Amino acid sequence: MSDRRTQILDAAATLISERGFTSTSVDDVIKGAKLSGKSHFYHYFKSKEELGYEVLNRQFERFAERGLAILREPMIDPLERLNLFIDAVVALQSESGGRRGSPFGNLAAELADAHEGFRVRIEAVFERWASQIRSLLWEARPQLHDDVDAVRLSRFIIAALEGAVLMTRVKRDLSVLEGIAADLKRFIAMHVRDGAAMQLPRHFE
Amino acid sequence: MSDRRTQILDAAATLISERGFTSTSVDDVIKGAKLSGKSHFYHYFKSKEELGYEVLNRQFERFAERGLAILREPMIDPLERLNLFIDAVVALQSESGGRRGSPFGNLAAELADAHEGFRVRIEAVFERWASQIRSLLWEARPQLHDDVDAVRLSRFIIAALEGAVLMTRVKRDLSVLEGIAADLKRFIAMHVRDGAAMQLPRHFE
DNA sequence: GGATATTAGGACCGTACGGTCCAATATGCA
DNA sequence: TGCATATTGGACCGTACGGTCCTAATATCC
């Protein structure tokens, strides 16, 4: 992949996460990526829409590397991994000073009703995210109550985090996200079998 | 308030909740409200921005009447009222077939970073909403654990509901919201004192 | 009746948008 | 060397946008 392409994608990602897709013009992207003109841009992307799709994919890959990867760490207890993942979401948000939200939630709210192409792709992103959590919960099932519904719980976790990020942006207060993250951990802990927490550090016995 | 004005506001509310504020043009609103021309519109509103503010206010008033009012019903146990309120949010969402989201969440995601005027007004909406829940929790405090943090819990409830509405729109599946609503009730029930007067149903359907 | 809103309809303006086309130069690689 | 790709720079197009201005026909209310 050429340098220029990633340069354009990076600039577009920043702009889109700041102002949304609709309010980001191709000219803005050109300026952000320091291109000479429109023909230069359209040499790499056939339309603004396609640029948007690629930006979304890259955002997810970045999130998969820096966030979701934690869910798969093999040496850590699954439920602890889930807590670490929640911490990572908080950390990612605080990197932007709590201002920029989850790129998926933003695009979802902006385009889910208006643009079917984006809606489908965002749905796929959430599904991949949810499936990571589901398999973690499956791995942790010996520690969980029998009636835990992994599909529902994974959706709840994502919804709570997305809602929290949104409220954090509106209030411009990172502590909103921190509080909700802490409560979310408690909600997850609610599903843990009594005494399972004691089982955890098996290495100590 | 003149008929025309409310006619315009209603048309604008529908369009904005369907396509967002930025993607709704004044011409669209004029067409939707069956006005004769732009001068007719600008006779009632000095700008599109001001129209947006008034639409937001009306959406909140509508939500206050049809949703938040439940939180203040004097004859019902406070914690049961909270459950009924959550049911009402689900019902409001299903009215639009699960497609249109919370008007506040939509505008928040679209404009929180880009438009300070809207951000402040949306923040006020969430604050009024949160304060209603806070005073309900205060009323219910004899039934709650001593360490319940009403500020945090109220934020959690709102974030979970907003996130749930967002995911429901993306997946086009109302059962997402229903599941999260049920889980949210369980989370709230977690804060209830053992043996408190009001016993909350634990749904595990 | 006369003053005041309301409705109607259209011309117009400056700006921005996504996108196309073209001509010329630079660069890298076989 | 030669050919393809990358880069530059700009003109251009059709459309849409928010907003202004102007005129004139109706209602409404004192």
Question: Would you kindly provide a brief summary of this structure?
Answer:
Two copies of one chain form a homodimer. Chain A has helices at 3-19, 26-32, 38-44, 48-66, 78-95, 103-111, 116-139, 150-171, 174-189, 196-199. By secondary structure, chain A is mainly alpha-helical.
Task: Please characterize this protein's 3D structure.
- The structure is a homodimer of 205-residue chains.
- Chain A is mainly α and 205 residues long.
- The first copy, chain A, has a domain at 67-204: Tetracycline Repressor, domain 2, CATH 1.10.357.
- In chain A, 70% of the residues lie in helices and 0% in strands.
- The first copy, chain A, has helices spanning 3-19, 26-32, 38-44, 48-66, 78-95, 103-111, 116-139, 150-171, 174-189, 196-199.
- Chain A starts with a helix and ends in a 6-residue tail after the last helix.
- The interface between A and B is large, with 49 and 49 residues.
- Chain A binds a DNA duplex (30 and 30 nucleotides) through α3.
